[in-house]
Specification:
This protein is an alpha+beta fold. It is built from three helices and four strands, in the order αβαββαβ. The longest helix is centred in the first third of the chain and has 30 residues.
């Protein structure tokens, strides 16, 4: 028999996992529908990454941190859809000015 504390912890864990999944799904939909950024982080099987960089839609490779991730810059409208069609599992907008940003930050 489970205690109330165990049920509360499981409920909280499930709610957190659902919120996290909804967040990533929302970002993926935003990247596909609106393309808010030309720079994206792509997650795909490592065997498909070379094929993603040679799509019909021109993209530039900015960073390859490994683990199935690659940072790209799209050069034309609709490149996110082409990435999904090429086998990408998840495409998220990349925030400029992050620690792995390809653009150098200016000193204050």
């Amino acid at each position: 028999m489970r205690t109330t504390t165990e049920r509360s912890a499981r409920t909280l864990l499930a709610a957190g996992a659902l919120a996290l999944a909804a967040w990533f799904a929302g970002l993926a939909i935003l990247a596909y529908a609106v393309e808010p950024s030309r720079e994206v982080i792509v997650w795909a099987p490592e065997g498909r990454l070379p094929a993603l960089t040679s799509l019909a839609a021109p993209v530039s490779v900015l960073d390859t941190p490994g683990g199935g991730f690659i940072r790209l810059r799209g050069e034309s409208k609709g490149f996110v859809g082409a990435l999904y069609a090429g086998g990408a599992w998840l495409v998220l907008p990349a925030a400029a000015g992050t620690c792995r940003s390809a653009r150098p930050r200016r000193a204050a």
